[in-house]
Design brief:
Helices cover 34% and strands 28% of the residues. It is α/β, with parallel strands linked by helices. The strands form two sheets. An eleven-stranded mixed sheet has the order 6-5-4-7-8-9-10-11-12-13-14, with helices on one face. It has a three-stranded mixed sheet with strand order 1-3-2, with helices on one face. Helix 2 crosses helix 3 (82-90). The longest helix has 31 residues, at 8-38. It is elongated and about 120 Å long. The N and C termini lie far apart (129 Å).
Length: 268
């Protein structure tokens, strides 16, 4: 039986028909998907906040974020940008990190990690604090009593906090409180005790600075027994000893090989 080939115009019409059907199907699917996504059933009904909320509550979050929420939550549960919501919560004071997740069918779950303040950055009351990771953040604590002061270049904040912990533990053996630790622009370290005494630590690695401090704490008790007077200042920058000033007496401690007694000078 001879085969009959379809005319070219029929072939073209068949191809066009198939294409149109495919386009119609895609458009219909797209319109249905858009309708489904925008259906009120998928609107975000609630945001549940969990985790560290010692410095925040529903009232404060609502006051600080309500206006921004209207612009950030302009999508549905399925299309809302979780990164934008995360950034929004992390812009709130005391919030260090926020993790945002979808909870079917129409809730967002936000898990917060708050900063834990351990010191002021700069001066007390500056509005900047340091957390346990050595990060500087902006906030004002409810109770600032007992917070020490740390200072230096912001990018060195973790280094300053790390050294503070080492020195505080060493000085604490003699019940000496470390009130302030500063890294100057010249790269030298200085400290202030809670008694008001100033301590010059000089330059060096944390191990070197700790060794100088131990040399001081290891001999301070015998000096205070021998020389009466409140401690006013200490200079630990000497290679083999240190100098300190007591009220009424200036004392230079030198420890060359074989030396056992300190040299003292009257204060001028």
């Amino acid at each position: 039986m001879p085969s009959t080939e379809l005319p070219l115009d029929v072939k073209l019409m068949t191809v066009v028909t198939h294409v149109l059907v495919a386009v119609f199907a895609v458009l219909s699917l797209g319109l249905f998907t858009t309708w489904l996504v925008r259906h009120p059933i998928w609107s975000v009904k609630a945001i549940a906040v969990h985790g560290d909320v010692a410095h925040q509550n529903a009232v404060t979050f609502r006051a600080q974020l309500s206006s921004q929420m209207k612009t950030r939550l302009n999508g549905s549960f399925l299309t809302v940008d979780l990164q934008q919501v995360r950034q929004l919560f992390e812009s709130v004071p005391w919030v260090r990190k926020a993790v945002v997740q979808r909870e079917f069918p129409n809730r967002l779950r936000v898990t917060l990690e708050e900063h834990q303040a351990v010191a002021w950055w700069g001066e007390s009351g500056s509005g900047q604090l340091v957390n346990r990771l050595g990060e500087v953040f902006d906030a004002s604590p409810d109770d600032s009593d007992g917070l020490p002061e740390l200072a230096g270049p912001v990018e060195k904040s973790a280094q300053v906090w790390s050294l503070y912990q080492l020195l505080e533990a060493e000085l604490g053996r003699l019940d000496l409180g470390l009130e302030r630790l500063e890294l100057t622009e010249r790269g030298t370290w200085r400290a202030k005790l809670d008694s008001g005494a100033q301590v010059e630590l000089g330059r060096g690695t944390p191990d070197e600075l700790l060794a100088r401090t131990r040399r001081f704490t290891g001999t301070l008790a015998q000096l205070t027994e021998r020389y009466a007077g409140a401690l006013q200042s200490v200079d630990l920058r000497y290679p083999n000893g240190y100098a300190l000033r007591l009220r009424g007496v200036t004392t230079v401690i030198d420890t060359p090989p074989g030396a056992t007694q300190p040299r003292t000078q009257p204060r001028r």
